[in-house]
Write a structure and sequence with these properties.
Length: about 260
């Protein structure tokens, strides 16, 4: 068990600010880990290795990735604010991890990116990030619940070629946000955006239930910018959204089915 007693500012060029090996528990005690990264640096903030490490209760800023979850998984990340990083706020590269009560804001790319399987993201916030708020990238059996994605440049929550993932009781609003794209220096292409977006030929058997959406931006087949809240790009041969299950989701408070294409 370890506890910070002051803020940490890093100077070593590319090594992580802090690395936790399996079993280690770090309480940031409300303090800040500042990577102080120059533009070319790839120094990550906190990296979890091995199995069953835990970090909680603090702020991580100006790193390459704020938190990277590696190793054999079963790690826990709790009560963090992760912001102003040049890649992802939280990068999950292993399985069976939990990220709880954590905010990822103003990161140049994504708030949360999940590459692994059977991870849980609970009571988290992705806001004002330069690409997606939350991305499941070829991950399976992950669960995102009771979380929010607001004002991100691209999709609020995206599943890209993942199977058997669950999106439950989330709030997704005002994504596809031009102002955020400009602030983060990202290109704006609303024809690939939506509030909740499922894409890729292998994106099947995902369950999207009881999510609330509004004000998310996409475009129609004529490339006109429109509001697009629920979008499933993986459809059957008749153009129906039967590859994934969409249940009791809402747009502006009204029950709605996803658009398919």
């Amino acid at each position: 068990h370890h506890k910070l007693t002051k803020n940490v500012t890093c100077t070593v060029p590319d090594d992580p600010a802090l690395t936790l090996q399996g079993g280690a528990i770090l309480d940031l005690n409300g303090y800040t880990v500042d990577c102080n990264n120059p533009e070319e640096s790839e120094r990550d903030g906190i990296v979890l290795e091995g199995r069953n490490a835990k970090v909680r209760n603090g702020i991580i800023i100006r790193c390459y990735n704020g938190v990277v979850i590696n190793g054999d998984g079963h790690h826990k990340v709790l009560q963090l604010i992760v912001e102003n990083n040049t890649r992802e706020g939280i990068r999950v590269r292993s399985d069976h991890n939990q990220v709880i009560n954590t905010e990822a804001r103003n990161n140049e790319r994504r708030g949360f990116k999940i590459d692994g399987d059977e991870n849980k993201l609970v009571n988290c916030l992705a806001e004002d990030n330069g690409r997606n708020g939350i991305l499941i990238d070829e991950g399976n059996d992950n669960k995102i619940s009771n979380s929010a994605a607001f004002d991100n440049c691209r999709d609020g929550i995206e599943i890209d070629n993942g199977r058997d993932n669950y999106l439950i009781n989330n709030s997704v609003a005002n994504n596809g946000n031009l102002d955020t794209c400009n602030a983060r220096g990202q290109d704006y292409n609303p024809c690939s955006y939506a509030g909740i977006d499922i894409k890729g030929d292998d994106a099947e058997d995902n369950i999207v239930i009881n999510n609330r959406t509004s004000g998310n931006i996409g475009c129609d087949e004529d490339l006109n910018v429109i509001e697009r809240n629920l979008w499933d790009e993986n459809v059957d041969e008749d153009g129906n959204c039967y590859m994934n299950r969409w249940i009791n989701n809402r747009v502006d408070g009204e029950r709605a089915e996803p658009e398919c294409g």
